[in-house]
């Protein structure tokens, strides 16, 4: 419970600095015509990093990766930050759950 | 159309199973139909609002707003379910007697109907928001609206039927055992929801993942399959869980079980004195 309150408080604290952190540091992915661009992205292994996903389509998409243990809905014409890592070297596939036939990509951690 | 049906089905299924379980677990409580309908309706309204401001929520907490929001909703549901289980520990036997005698309802004590209305509302809100977001975006894009809508209708109907099937199945359980069965199911549901909450906190980096490759049974039973989704909701099945999910799952089981034992013991003392 204490831990939970702690999380709540730190959540509220970070809330106020959120906008300034939305600027793009880290790695960038775009979703366009229900495809990830680039569909293959090299990222560093053994460190945490930010993935900025820009959904350029009008339709929403859900970034989902079982291997990365991440799932996040991104509204149309908006962006989302996904925190990733530290990853072991390897290939990590992800999909856009709302358009799984076309929206496929992978991170290559080196 | 088929894609829309599957996505809507998955979301509706989660909410429908929770509503059915709550309905079965609250048999005999006066006006539960009214309270649970209020929960569903409230959940739907808030779902629309949440979908509308999803990008605002998302921008909170350094871009981790959606994760925190999901975790809060999930942990709130876990708290309400624990409350219900502890209340049932006190009043369960009495309720089982009352159910046999349908014309009576429980007059004494603080009935947890509002608690369960909140559980239902939270479930409908969480899953409903995703459906609204998905449908709204798709329709806005203008692509094959009719196909999308009929797909969603099929998904909605499918989820509803599965929920009804669970409810009917639970009602076949003899009254003597009904609340024992629903109690265990709610305990497992709560543990699964707590694990899901931990997943989102780990995604937002508020909690450590504590290991990514503990086990992986996705080749045996994918969470995306119908059976996998049902197990995911009912017992918290996760094909490839992180360590923190496993920890939260068992900690929740243990804590709620421990609290109901404590209630049991104090009840025993009162009887003895």
Which features does this protein show?
heterodimer; A: 110 residues; alpha+beta; Immunoglobulin-like; 4-stranded mixed β-sheet; 2 helices; 45% strand; globular; B: 273 residues; 9 helices
Task: Compile the SSE list and pairings.
The complex is a heterodimer of chains A (110) and B (273).
Chain A: H1 2-15, H2 18-21, E1 27-32, E2 35-37, E3 40-43, E4 49-55, E5 61-65, E6 70-74, E7 78-84, E8 90-96, E9 104-109
Parallel strand pairs in A: 1-4, 3-9
Antiparallel strand pairs in A: 1-2, 4-7, 5-6, 5-8, 8-9
Chain B: H1 2-25, H2 32-52, H3 54-63, H4 65-100, H5 113-140, H6 145-171, H7 175-203, H8 226-235, H9 243-272
Helix pairs in contact in B: 1-5, 1-6, 1-7, 1-8, 2-5, 3-4, 4-5, 4-7, 4-9, 7-8, 7-9
- Biggest interface: A-B, 38 and 41 residues
Question: How many structural domains can be distinguished in the coordinates of chain A?
Answer: 1
Strands ordered across the widest β-sheet of chain A: 3-9-8-5-6
Task: Give the CATH class of chain B.
Answer: Mainly Alpha
Strand percentage of chain B lies at under 5%
CATH T-level topology of chain B: Growth Hormone, Chain: A
The H-and-E topology of chain A, N to C, reads as: HHEEEEEEEEE
Gyration radius over CA of chain B:
20 Å
Gyration radius of chain A, rounded: 15 Å
Overall mean confidence score, pLDDT of chain B: 86
Rough outline of chain B: globular
